[in-house]
Automatic annotation (TrEMBL):
Lineage top rank: taxon: Bacteria
Keyword Transmembrane listed: yes
Transmembrane segments: 260-280
Protein name per UniProt: Family 2 glycosyl transferase
Organism this protein belongs to: Spirosoma montaniterrae
Length: 326
């Protein structure tokens, strides 16, 4: 049996995976591992490119673009290691992190899963990454910025206080290591999620099986937006801070974890904001002696996104199993 099964989901990113695997082989010592790649119908020559360099990679085809949860679950079912790592294709190791994570799980049976801090491509610590459910929930509310707003949100959605400063409520699926027996008890990733939010919801269930830790001093590079030519996040604004797929998935998570009331409050919040953001911009235009309908693209985009959320309203409200793909 391998010490570790590494599962990577591929969707048209063979070059990223080759770089990722090069870093895995360069830095990993002292443990045995296998690599499983699950392909989401890339429709290219990803398999040939990767297996030409790493012939021992185990390849699985989903047959359709199944997203993150379903593809990883397929890999989990076929994994032969005594530990399992979910690893993004756009990641790079910089030291023997995998052996350290395996050791942590081997020596701390009360730990359910481990992760590491994320570095940007220039090896700077990526700031403001969420590790608690409260941080996520506070980010969903679009309110006037300021300390008073921050204080109010903090009171409504406080963060837990753990004895161990390295303990968190959830670990990013970009790099998450756990044990097959922990998955058996917690359940696999929820396959209603297409992308985003599934690791947050999974963190809630994994956390019931033991502590979730970000190992101190443990780091990896996450080339987020690595498949973009500019390596940049899409432009965000105060009111349009999430991609529609991100927000739909997070609304599904809220409904599953916190119930109907929390979900309805958020949906009502977004609906009521539509006239407010339009009226606010029109008032600013009039104050500046401009046409009242100048520069409303940001507001129109927000209304469009709320419309997308509402397409999934009844299905989410009733918590129906399905495939929440925008």
């Amino acid at each position: 049996m391998y010490d570790l099964s590494i599962i990577i989901v591929n969707y048209k990113t063979p070059r990223l995976i080759l770089d990722c695997l090069a870093s895995v082989h360069e830095h990993t010592r002292g443990i045995s591992f296998e690599v499983l790649i699950v392909d989401n119908q890339s429709g290219d020559n990803s398999r040939a490119q990767i297996q030409a360099v790493y012939s021992d990679v185990r390849w699985f085809d989903m047959g359709y673009n199944a997203g993150f949860a379903r593809a990883n679950n397929l890999g989990i079912r076929h994994a032969q290691g005594r530990n399992i790592l979910l690893l993004n294709s756009d990641t790079l190791l910089i030291d023997n992190l995998l052996a350290r994570c395996v050791q942590a799980l081997d020596t701390q049976p009360d730990v359910a899963a481990v992760g590491a801090q994320q570095l940007s491509r220039d090896r700077q610590l990526r700031p403001n990454l969420y590790t608690t459910f409260g941080q996520m929930r506070r980010a969903f509310y679009i309110l006037p910025p300021g300390q008073r707003t921050d204080n109010w949100l903090q009171r409504q959605f406080p963060d837990p206080v753990f004895t161990d400063p390295n303990q968190v409520e959830w670990i990013s699926g970009a790099f998450l290591m756990t044990r097959p027996r922990t998955i058996a008890r917690a359940g696999a990733l929820d396959e209603s999620f297409f992308m985003y939010g599934e690791d947050v919801e999974w963190g809630y269930r994994l956390g019931k099986q033991g502590r979730l830790l970000l190992l101190p001093g443990a780091q990896f590079i996450h080339l987020e937006y690595g498949s973009s030519d500019t390596h940049q996040q899409h432009v965000v604004t105060h009111i349009n801070r999430f991609k529609p797929q991100v927000q739909v998935s997070q609304l599904v998570w809220i409904r599953k974890q916190y119930g109907v009331g929390a979900y309805l409050v958020l949906i009502l919040h977004y609906i009521l904001l539509i006239p407010i953001v339009f009226a606010g911009k029109i008032a600013i235009n009039l104050k500046n002696r401009q046409s009242p309908f100048t520069g409303l693209s940001n507001q129109r985009e927000f209304a469009r996104q709320v419309g997308i959320f509402l397409r999934f309203f009844w299905k989410t409200l009733l918590n129906k199993p399905g495939f929440y793909k925008v």
